[in-house]
UniProtKB/TrEMBL annotation:
Organism: Prauserella muralis
Any Pfam family hit: DivIC
Sequence segments annotated as region (Disordered): 1-42, 141-174
Protein name per Swiss-Prot or TrEMBL: Septum formation initiator
Basic and acidic residues biased stretches: 141-157
UniProt keyword annotation of Ribosomal protein present: no
Coiled coil: 81-115
UniProt-listed InterPro entries: FtsL/DivIC
Amino acid sequence: MAERGRARSRRSGGRAQSSSPRRPQRARREDRRSRLRRGLSATRASSAAKVLGLSTTRRAALVAIVVCALAFTLAVPLRTYLSQRADVAEQEARQAQLERQVDQLEQRKADLADPAQVEAEARRRLRYVMPGETPYMVQLPEDKKAAEQRAHGEPARPEGAWYQELWDSVNNGE
């Protein structure tokens, strides 16, 4: 204690601490506390570095490696989560589409439960007639040509200029 008292008196130029007219006693105490705190935190940081035996650069490199390891550890599960979320959204959209299709088919089934509707479908699509009725079929020249081409298995080709048809026949080897 005596040494400390002497050290203080030397710093203050041989004057005692209590006789300092410039600083009040309270300000000096707060100043001492802040210096003590700064000294303790610096001592703690330096002691941690001494315990680990690492310099500042090595500590920064170690922190960077740890951060990278955490990023790589989280990247794969995050990617899996996002891809699964996209798959779920796609499957929900597909399910909604299928539900709409089921609703349409149920509506069609309800429509076909009516005998009048079935009869109208048979007349229109299958060209059925009731007994005693006389069916008439009107064929236009365009319809006849398309029907002949479908019967022979040839695809319907648009008519072009004579030279185009000649060139197509030469290229196709007909």
